[in-house]
Fold these 2 entries.
Entry 1:
Amino acid sequence: MKKVIILIILGATMTVGCSVDKNDLLGKYSFTGDNVIDTLIIKQDTYIHKIYDKHSKLLYQGQDKWELDKNRIDLQNFYNNEDNELTEALSNEDSKKFLMLTSYPIDKQNNHIIIEVNADENIRYEKGR
């Protein structure tokens, strides 16, 4: 019986320790892939998304609203590039057909916040320190 109680307390402590509040999320995140450098700036109610090529040339910029839903971040009208190579700049008009509502899990490890976009491909935004 004592083992069960200890496991319940330990599980509850781990769950509480990994939770993220809205103010924790604010800041700059980045993902560097084989083809692009992808940045995400989370502000109080909006996000700014920029994608650069390997030579730091800006290829895409967009922004919209975001919300925290438990341990997930919901990004409205988000362009999910997933490290696909962009050969030329993508205008806001051209990007409209790719924009979608996305919801990504948030992980907090040792006070380091990660937004997991695609776990299979190891695509994740990591918060700058």
Entry 2:
Amino acid sequence: MRRKLSLSEILYVGEIRTLATTVCTVRGEVDEELLAAAFAAKVAEHRSLRSRVVRDGDEVFLDLLDEEELPRLAVHPAGPTDLTDQLNRPLPAGGPLVRATLFRGDGESTFVLGIDHVICDGHSATVLCNEIWSAYAGIQDGTYEAPRSAGESWPVAVDDLLAPCSDEDLAAYVKDRTERTSEHPLAVLPFTADASPQDGQPQDGQFRDGQFRDGQSQDGQLQDGQLQDRRPQDGRPQGGALMDVRRVRLTREQTDALVGFAKSVGVSVHGLVGAALLTAVRDGYGPGYGTDHRLSFVSPVDLRARLTPALGRDVLIPAASWYLDVVDVPAGVDPIELGRRITGRLRDGIERGEPARELQALPLLLANPAVLTASLVMPNVGSVAGPPAPPGLEITDMRKFAISSKWVPEAGAGALVASPMTVYGRLSIEMPYSARCFTPARMNEIHDHVLATLLSFVERAPVSAV
């Protein structure tokens, strides 16, 4: 028995695969047998986690793995390059669609969960991570009970749960989308890296900014929420790692102040972060950015509550679409007004049902890839509580981002991808990138621009919010 993938799911099955990655920093002695049992329990509960992707002619299916092929927790001693290695190791073709790894350290370990986007989105990946830690605690105290109907079928594809739309309405929607993206030239960040990576191993393993340890970098110099740090500036990837992540992170006090400022000016934190990122892209484009240029801003949108029937966030399926906005970002733009404008347009687009139309019009949109051009892609996880820590453990940090298995440096330019999330009271923005496309120096510039913009808001926060 197998399940045919829908068109929107097949988007994740090409040569470029995307891994929804969740990273937890855990203080205390993790019992690897309990964690392995908890992960195995979730694999047993979700049929998609026991599946592989197979092709049959022009069609693509989910098919079950054999028992000996099922994914199991891998445990390794923490080392200087393990985390970077994870970013640069795609899931094997035809194999499991999930990978769980524990890097055991001295008093502090790192748990990395990667799920192929063909079977999940950001919300369901977060729920799965939380469920693994809840199962750990339940197995530990003897209260865990597996669901009676676990894993008996695959979830229904989102495409089949959308409200019907006529061919005439889809054609009109595509016409409007085409006009929207062709009226002005769209500025996309030019790639600045040499497409030929150096040989050798990365010099650090904590992702390039060293931010896995709370508040301090690997070399002890960088503090969260500050601009000064020690980073590669020569325009080349360190050692040769292709995929990397740059992180902007505020302290709890700065996050509280940013929220207070956002409330005082009537703009969401999402809008302020989006404005900071858009102006960073505009500045990064360079002096060629003219008055006629625009930026295309892609916002992933969760469709779960808009389906019939609605889906809970625990259902492992890619249930997100997107809204594409074309934004005027002139020199000296007021970031507060820009943030207000992009959030208002996003809200209006969702109310009009545009994210659902994007999925339904995919065959027409894919015929003209230019209408899918993105300057900035900004998923918004929002504010999350973080995974529940089992007794005896403390989960001190969680990171979330999507890692692509391949970028295309030959394209010469590409989107900035940035994922804001507030967890444990601290706002962070994860920016995954390929070192064959963007140099560390370019990502440093974007990091510093975004952080400086956010701190300028923090400085203007009402006294009661500080």
